[in-house]
Amino acid sequence: MTEQNTQMEGAPLIAPSSTDHPLYDTVVEACRTVYDPEIPVNIYDLGLVYTVEINDQNEVNIIMTLTAPGCPVAGEMPGWVAEAVEPLPGVKQVDVDLTWEPPWGMEMMSDEARLELGFM
């Protein structure tokens, strides 16, 4: 087995976030201002934001998903997220990418979201 295959085999489906970056908490709070129009919970607590990656140039790359591929706002939601994050002080650029891997599931919701929706 080659070294590359070994690394790939154990790779997480969801890339890690830049939680130690000084802008991370501010970016997460901005994501919390975006709501799924069909569910009264913000997209971060719903578990739709998989990765918040921020590099040394303060360029933010967000990888997110939607509750379902047929979501009526599929084309719009990444733009809403970018609009929420881009004006933040210190953010140079924002890219928001949609992914369907792994598929979103209710287990990805925060406890707050479960409580809000009556699942707890």
UniProtKB/TrEMBL annotation:
UniProt cross-references to InterPro entries, sorted A to Z:
Fe-S_Maturation_MIP18, FSCA_dom_sf, MIP18-like, SUF_FeS_clus_asmbl-assoc
Q: Which PANTHER family match?
A: FE-S PROTEIN MATURATION AUXILIARY FACTOR YITW
Matches recorded under NCBIfam families: SUF_assoc
Report the protein name in the record: Putative PaaD protein
Q: Which organism is it from?
A: Mameliella alba
